[in-house]
Amino acid sequence: MTSDFPPHEDFLAFAEALADQSRAMLLKASATDPDIEIKPDASYVTSTDKAVETALRAMIEAEYPDHGILGEEFENKNTDAEFVWVLDPIDGTAAFVAGIPIFGSLIGLAWNGAPYVGVIEQPMTQDRWVGVAETMALFNGKPIQTRACASIETALTTCSNADFMNDTDRAKFDLVRRCAQYVQYGGSCYAYGVLASGRTDLALDGGLDAFDIYAPAAVITGAGGYVTDWNGDPLSFDMRGNVLAAGDKSRLDEVLFILQG
């Protein structure tokens, strides 16, 4: 499949330029107390979320006016285009509000609706994961690879927040949780980065949108891993739900079997 992808070098360089812009804005904003609004879904949004996405959109529209944009804070644009940028200006806004340094920016580029190029930008630790789906992945400029995992009983698993799952999905998650060796909660997009780096084995999350997962999916699959929904289906722009990531295909299949009863 990788041979079918268009050349990625220019897109990846531009994605990193977007990440540079986001890093500068978030480092400056983190020095002051944020102003907070509550969205209809009860989640936080700040003026910084909106300012970062506005700046990234302006850069994209200037460089690639024919590309679409799907973002968290503003109306989507031309999502039927061959190339669509998928933006989460602050992944982990609650952590940003609380001053916990695990928030980041997610910058993805989809090709024909599927994750293609991704950047996980962590401004406070100055860490950055970049990847091209099924092709390559780097952590701070060095190649990375997901790790093999012998069984779910030995799997180090992450979950950002199980409260985002409904009661039915929480019960399914608990089945996996009881099998796994350990579950580390929190971490937001950092958790997906460490999976790509081969430090963890599984990630299960609920209530996600495309902008939460497209960039990490490109990085994880670029590092040799796998990302699906809980039915084993590919990600899509209109998703709103549960995501499973695994570094080892056998563990992906094992967890899907558990989730499906």
Which key features would you list for this structure?
about 260 residues, alpha+beta, Fructose-1,6-Bisphosphatase, Chain A, domain 1, 2 domains, seven-stranded mixed sheet, five-stranded mixed sheet
Protein structure class: alpha+beta
Number of strands: 14
Give the strand content: 25-35%
Low-confidence stretches: none
Instruction: Tell me the strand order in the biggest sheet.
Output: 3-4-5-6-7-8-9
Question: What's the tally of helices?
Answer: 7
Biggest sheet, open or closed, and with what strands and sense?
A: 7 strands, mixed
The CATH superfamily of the largest domain appears as Fructose-1,6-Bisphosphatase, subunit A, domain 1
Reported by name, the CATH topology of the largest domain is: Fructose-1,6-Bisphosphatase, Chain A, domain 1
Which descriptor suits the 3D outline?
globular
CATH class of the largest domain: Alpha Beta
- What value does the average pLDDT take? 95
Give helix and strand order, one letter per element, not per position: HEEHEEHEEEEEEHEHEHEEH
* Cα Rg: 17 Å
Distance between the termini: 31 Å
GO molecular function: inositol monophosphate 1-phosphatase activity; metal ion binding
InterPro entries: Inositol_monophosphatase-like
Family: Belongs to the inositol monophosphatase superfamily.
Catalytic activity: a myo-inositol phosphate + H2O = myo-inositol + phosphate
Give the topology.
Blueprint: H1 9-29, E1 36-38, E2 44-46, H2 47-63, E3 68-71, E4 83-91, H3 93-98, E5 104-111, E6 114-122, E7 127-132, E8 136-139, E9 142-143, E10 156-159, H4 167-179, E11 182-185, H5 189-196, E12 202-209, H6 210-222, E13 226-229, E14 240-246, H7 249-259
Parallel strand pairs: 3-4, 10-11, 10-12
Antiparallel strand pairs: 1-2, 4-5, 5-6, 6-7, 7-8, 8-9, 12-14, 13-14
Helix pairs in contact: 1-2, 5-6
